[in-house]
Every structure is written in structure tokens, then in C-alpha cells.
Design brief:
- It is a single chain.
- The protein is an alpha/beta fold.
- The chain contains 17 helices and 16 strands.
- It has 3 domains: about 280 residues, TIM Barrel (Alpha-Beta Barrel), CATH 3.20.20; about 90 residues, no CATH class; about 110 residues, Double Stranded RNA Binding Domain.
- The strands form 4 sheets. Strands 2-3-4-5-6-7-8-9 form an 8-stranded parallel β-barrel, surrounded by 7 helices.
- The longest helix has 18 residues.
- The chain is globular.
- It binds acetyl coenzyme *A and 3-methyl-2-oxobutanoic acid.
- The site of 3-methyl-2-oxobutanoic acid has 9 residues, from strand 6.
- It comes from Desulfosporosinus orientis (strain ATCC 19365 / DSM 765 / NCIMB 8382 / VKM B-1628 / Singapore I) (Desulfotomaculum orientis).
- One of its GO terms (biological process) is L-leucine biosynthetic process.
- Its EC number is 2.3.3.13.
Length: about 500
Amino acid sequence: MRRIEIFDTTLRDGEQSPGVALNAEEKLQIAHQLGKLGVNVLEAGFPIASPGDFAGVRRIAQEVRNVSVAALARANAKDIECAWEAISEGESPRIHTFIATSPIHMRYKLQKSPEEVLEQAVQAVRLAKSKVSDIEFSAEDASRSDVDFLAKVFSGVIQAGATVLNIPDTVGYATPEEYAAFLRAIMEHTKGIEKVKVSVHCHNDLGLAVANSLAAVGAGVHQLECTVNGIGERAGNAALEELVMALHTRKDQFKAETSIVTSEIARTSQLVSRLTGMMIQHNKAIVGKNAFAHESGIHQDGMLKDRSTYEIMSPSIIGVDAESIVLGKHSGRHAVQQRLTDLGLELDESRFEELFSRFKLLADRKREVTTADLFSLVEEQKEKTDQITLDYLQVSSGTHLVPTATVGLQYEGQRLADAACGDGPVDAAFKAIDKVLGTQGILSHYSLQALDGGEDAQGEVTVTVRFGENLVAGRGVSTDIIEASVRGYLQAVNRAFVRGWVKICENNAS
Ligand SMILES: CC(=O)SCCNC(=O)CCNC(=O)[C@H](O)C(C)(C)COP(=O)(O)OP(=O)(O)OC[C@H]1O[C@@H](n2cnc3c(N)ncnc32)[C@H](O)[C@@H]1OP(=O)(O)O
Ligand SMILES: CC(C)C(=O)C(=O)O
């Protein structure tokens, strides 16, 4: 069996998903979970992009051990110095520098000749090598590049000290056989290729990211770049869970394995979905809600006779187990504590007591408190640092009423309130919040889903709100969907406030 390394870029390319902006704390939380998942390399961010990203990458490098932490840098001195400053305290740091090599990108975007690009790539790797030994070089838009030119660039950067060569399908244009043949040609023509690891990074514009990455395994690459839930720029990246489970389930075909702890997959997927606000489609392979659900009679009959009839992998392998203890209003501390421990959610005594009292309040409102509800209770606790909180909410709406909402908020010990009308009760409530705070949010995305099945399920609302030039996401959960919407909107306002994207005018203090 060959060992394939998993390079996770959820915190860099994944964060490039429109509407996603993780703060340093959230990045760190995901990074710790990626460590538990067993990824080999964790690309923590693009430090030059913003002070927040720099801070997030730095904290990850300082705190997350047993995994190589990479930072992205364009092929210039400023980016490379900045990336190095962010990761220098890491246990096993990697500078990842890149430049585009396709005729389209060189001509229109970089406005440089191939010779200039070659020179810039070599200089960048040389500078990075003067800082640290592990250097990854990526040829952006490699799959639309000329083979001979690309091999020349790769030969040059190997000589300059690159240890990993990445051959991305940046725009998701390749098809599996064509990509495998392209990779073989590059490997054949690159001098010194035997000294380095070869990597691929596939985008999903044609829905082929995973197929192309697996074709690359067949062509002999050593590293796969991917993101949890396949999030990322445009249609996203190759999904980590799909790659890992394809290699695992079809060892007979690929003759390759990874170091991923598969039982951490479901938990990681849930965490990334929650913190990014990017929901997982129900029929998503491996981690979708329906991935192990059997609906039709003939399938159920087959499953009852022998699970192998319709199940190619057991849900337990990705960490999804049937719950034998149902948590509800009659549950005590032991049962709740045990479930939290099973879920890897360790809380100290005071945080547990606070969570337990909110658990009881929720259990009064719904029959069963599910795993998703527990994750949500823990998340709410983290958001307790919010500076603007909901005090109360009143809405009136109906077939012959103008929807009206009154919202009371707390900010710096003051109680603020105002009322507004809107197209519907949610719109009215958002307008009331803006009126109270003097903000002007424009809702660019709103989605509502039940946290779990059942008529008493909590509603989970995810919003993306534009404040001026900036997009920010928020998420709220409640048994009342208007309250969930308001909590989601307020989370977005709080995040925008912390980043200095909105200012609060306290006109309505009481
Ligand atoms: C395929 C990928 O996913 S690559 C990663 C993409 N991710 C991101 O872009 C997210 C973070 N990006 C950012 O925050 C900003 O774009 C920054 C901070 C990196 C740069 O911001 P700005 O300096 O304002 O430049 P802007 O983004 O407008 O333009 C990019 C510039 O970088 C140049 N550039 C692009 N790629 C590279 C590269 N690999 N190496 C060197 N220069 C590059 C472009 O030619 C352009 O240069 P120009 O200003 O001389 O025309
Ligand atoms: C920076 C590189 C690896 C990239 O993200 C891409 O080519 O898609």
C-alpha cells in the first residue's frame, strides 16, 4: 500500500467560499479538529490577506502540534516574509508559494512573459528556502499550461529548493484520463522530480474534483489537496471525506491509504459546516444527512436481510453511531455529560453547568435533544462573547396585518429598542435591529433548515449580510424560526462590529 498525504486547505481555499469569513478563534477550533482527524498538512491561511488571517495562522502554528502548518504566499518577497512570520513558531512549518503558468493567466492576469514568470518562481522559492526547508511550489492553472514550459518551471524550482510540487486544476477544467496523462508527462519531463513530492489540487467546476484527484493517485502523485465538505472558491475543492473514503473503501483499486482517522470525519464535517455557515446538502456523499439513509421498501428489506446489500461502508466508520440513549427533559447530568464526552466536547464544570441549564430549557420545548442540538448549545456558549445581545423580540403578522417587529437589544449595559415594519416578520425584525443600532445590513443570503427531523425540531437559520463592501455570515438556532433568524442576523452584526465594518449609534437607549 502506498501512503498518500492529505493536505487540508479548508482554512485557506475553503475560506475563499463566497460569504465565509472565519475569525482567529474559529480557525483555531477547526485546526485542532483537523489535527485530531489526522491530516498531514494543514494550510492555515494566506497571511498577507488581512491582519485577522495573519493572527489566525500564527495562533494555529503556535498551538496545533503533530501536523505540518502551511501558509500561502504569492511569488513575491512581501508575501513570503509575511507567511514566514506567521508560521515560524510552528513545529513543522511549510511555506507554500505559487504563481500562474498558463498562457491565459500569464498574459491577462500577471501581464508577464513566460521568462519573467520562470524567474519570479525561482526567486520566490529561493527566498522561501532561506527561511525554512519545507517549500511547496504551486503552478496556478497548471492544467491549462504548456507541458514543456511547466516542466521547465518545475525543474527550476526544484533546483531552488522546492520539496513539494503542486499541479493544480485551478479552474476545474480537466477530465480524469486527460489529467492523469498530463501529470505523467510533467513528471517525465521535470528534472529532479524523484527528489520531491508531487501534489494535486482540484476544483469542482465540472463536478470532477474528486475523480480527477483519484486519477492523479493512479498517475503516482504523493499528496492530495482538499477541503472538508468540499467547500472552496466557486464550486469548491475536492472533498476530503470523499477522497479518503474512496481510497479506503476501494483499496483494491487504488492500493493506497491515508493517515486519516475516519471516525473523526462526521464530527469534523459538522464543525466546519457550523462555523462557516455552509450547509451540507442532504445527498452529499459520505457526510450528507441521507448518505446512510434507506427509504424505499426493497432497499429496507435488503438491509434487514444483510446490510451489505445496500451499504458499501458502515456509518460507524465515519463516526456516525446510532444513539441508544435519547436525551430529553428527564435526562440528568450523567447522560448529558456522557454524550458530550462521546462527541469529543469536553467542558469544564462551570461551562457544563451553564450548558446543562440551557439544555433543560430546550428540553422543555422539544421532545428530544439531539446531537445537533447539543453541538448548537455548545456553539451558543462560544458566541457568549457577543457584545450586542438579544433582550426580547415581539412580532405581529398575519394575512391582514402589516408585519411589524419590536426588538430589544443589550449593548454595553444599555437596553435599546425600536420597532419596524417589513415585507414579512423576519424582514421587519431585521429592519428593527438596523433601526436600533443605526446599521444598514443588506441581506444577500438567507436559509432555514430544521436541525433534525421531527415536528419539534429547532430551526437553524444561516444568513449572509452585506455591510458596505463586506459580506459576513451569521447563524442562529431556536425552536422559533423568527427568533433563530434574529439571532443569525445579530451574530452577523456582532462579527461585522468586531471587525470594525459597522459602527453602532445608540439612539434608542431606554
Ligand atoms: C488560485 C487561488 O486560489 S490563489 C489564492 C487566492 N486567494 C486570494 O486572493 C485571497 C486573499 N487575497 C487578498 O487578500 C488580496 O488579493 C491580496 C492581499 C493577496 C492582494 O491584494 P492587492 O495587493 O490589493 O492586489 P489584487 O488582489 O487587487 O491583485 C492581485 C495582484 O497580485 C498579482 N498576483 C497574482 N498572483 C500572483 C502570484 N502568484 N505571484 C505574484 N503576484 C501575483 C496580480 O498580478 C496583481 O498584481 P498587480 O497589482 O500588479 O496587477
Ligand atoms: C494556490 C493554488 C494551489 C490554488 O489554490 C489553485 O490553483 O486553485
